[in-house]
Queue: 3 jobs
Job 1
Amino acid sequence: MRTKLPSSSPSKQEFAGVFRLFGRISFWAHLLLGVVSGILLLLVMFSRNFSEINSAFIGFGIFLAVCGVVAVGFRVFWAYRYTRLAKLLQSPDKNLHPKKEEVIKILRIGLITSLLGIGLGFLASEGAVIAVLGKTLAQPQGVAVYNPETVVRSIDLLLILADVTIIGAHFLGAINSLGLVEWLDN
């Protein structure tokens, strides 16, 4: 089922219905992806021996991933706020309705948060990929590896998966906010 947003400026009730629906979708998508990436990140952090981290890229990647998960948590709250604003827009009391400029400002804050989260997730994944690539290039091909610090572990790949999940969550949030801003700003 494909929903097409009208190209003309929406009425308050029409926008409020779509705003509430998109707020709910955004809330649950961010919550699910945030929990998944948070669990993966916790697995990575508790599976590492921090005294033996040989790559600054992995440590920096973990820090940026934690910042990205915090940003996803903010987006969960912000998506919940979208649903509350939509409920106010659907209220019969016109005095409770937020102004169009206020709604656009809130949508833009969500968009900026998502773009920052995409940047954090991208930098975190780049750092993790560089560290994993460095480990694989340091290993001689076809020779037994006696130094366990140069072996690529599955936990290194889980960090990359957590980073990509963070990027996905923020990408969905950016699409959500940008679509609503563009539709409302017509």
Job 2
Amino acid sequence: MSEATFTFRVDEELKDQFSMVAKSRDRTSAQLLRDFMRDFVKQQQEAAAHDSWFRREVQIGLDAANIGDVLAAEQVEAEAIAWRAETRRRMGGANS
């Protein structure tokens, strides 16, 4: 992996504080910044993957609805009532 230099301006006091805290964690400022950058990139990739998944799922639902592949509200409610009753039974009769 090739390396590149990343230069940016930051307030001197913030830089000093960051360096001091990094040192207290037995890390250099550069090590922490690389970690933060990796974490940020990973979070963005995961968010993009979730967004893609969510959009696919919504499209599947829209496509199904457009061709009439839907459940009646009464059927959904009946299944929900049965699910809640079974959940209560498994929980030992709790009423919540």
Job 3
Amino acid sequence: MDWLMRLEKAVAYIENNLDSEISHEEAAKIACCSTFYFRRMFSYVAGISLSEYIRRRRMTQAAFELQKADAKVIDVALKYGYTSPTAFNRAFQNVHGISPAAAKLQGALLNAYPSIKFSVQITGGHAMPYRIEEKSSIRIVGARVPITEDMEENLQIAPTFWNDVIKDKQFGEICELSNTSPVGVLGITAYQNPDEIYYYIAAATDKPVPPGMYEYEIPASTWVIFESEGRFKESVQSVFRRFLTEWLPFSGYVYAELPDIEVYPIGKDIQQSGHSEVWIAVKKEKEN
């Protein structure tokens, strides 16, 4: 429950500062995790990125302000952090579909995005199969692409990267490298610092690094491993969301903030659905 309580406090900080500067770093500090992992976990739990959530909430409040008789568009724009009328107009239209000036008219149709509330719900006993394994360090070798701390941008980069690798001979080479656990084609986001974040398509292996590929070592850890059946993209996202909201709060573990591992079956080309696994590093709460 502590994780959800900390997340709730981080959201409260955001809500209290919609009309002033919001620091992602401060929100992450309240949630007791790094900025990168806070943004990552928030996007899984909320279903949208942190930046998009803040934008929607600000534009929701801006719409309420604009409907006051004496409200001026420029004043509302400045209140919610937009020094450029053009930028404010663009952000407002993206959320509401109409201009700020049109929002002042009686009968204008607007979208309201309420504040996110996190709670534990009884879901009818839907099973979440998992196992826990202690593992020494995991060495991976494969192709990689630079990504950023912007989760929205990363959601565009990763699928394109998969398509490029699958079409290249590297994909077959990666499949042939797999000879240690976890066995399969791995999708891994590895964060080292804000300037060194990579998404890998790789294999766990003890074989040499082929030309044009890279190696990375994930530290020894305790892993909770979830199995899933279905379309890979939806299954993986669902696993992360359920891990954070249903499994982690009651498990006695905390998130270890190590690279998460998506495990897909080996084949001549990547399938769109089937059996997959998600490996998430955790540690006992008392170790935190």
